[in-house]
Amino acid sequence: MLTRAGYVSRAVAFTYTPSPIEHPETAIASHTPLAEHLSRILGLPARIHYEQNHADIIRLFQEKKIDLVQVGPLPYVKLREQYPQAIPLAIFREADGKPSYACVLATAFDGPKKIEDLRGSIVMVQPLSTCGPLSVHYLLGRHGRELAQFPYDYLNNQDNVALAVIRGEYAAGGIKSSIAAKYGSLALRILDETPPFPGLVLVGNGATLSTEQLAAIREALLAVSPESDHGFIAGKYGFAPVADNDYQAIRDFSGDAQ
Fold first, then answer.
1. How far apart are CA 109 and CA 41, in angstroms?
2. N vs C: which end of the chain shows fewer Cβ within 10 Å?
3. Which mean pLDDT values do the consecutive 10-residue runs of the chain (258 residues) have?
4. Which domains does the chain have, with CATH numbers?
């Protein structure tokens, strides 16, 4: 059973929030099969609650209004720093089967050939997006440039960023490599790419879900394979085990970028 009307009591339902990578309608549709699967595992109705801002997601999770959340590596690290009850359960595998992804700085097909030639404004998703200032700062720095040299904007989700770059509204944008591949046929070209980061992670709220419930979710996700007849969209490539220390590289990376 799935509901989307208002916050609900922990005794009767759980609230699931997807990462704001995509447009709200797309994100909700792609996460509905997974949320319904978890509903069957827990024996509780699921409610999908979309938030477009990572900072709001982190706040609502700490306020115990979100029970399960899908977040990228940087938002996870920030959440865990503030709220040790954030329990990583499983990593969403990417299309290549790997539990990791890269961020890219992309331009339109007729844009600059290299970062050294980049002029104009840069667009990113959000300040707390892994593919936002953290990655863009790193990629520019590899080519002797700095983010402070460019005007920049935020457009909330990665689809918005990709399309704005394709339309020529910005000289370049920071997005996931898979999003760049998705729009590659629409004349989006990669200027540079980060090393792999640990992937999107499903995080459970240890203050609203019991140890037994968290363990049941983890076990159910790790049992999923791409060959499973589950009808998933989000999670269709399966899940990988995760531990908090898998994200130490992000902590180190974030410290270097400051």
1. 46
2. C
3. 44 89 90 97 96 95 98 97 98 95 96 95 96 96 96 94 96 95 87 95 97 97 86 94 94 69
4. 2-98+198-249 (3.40.190.10), 103-193 (3.40.190.10)
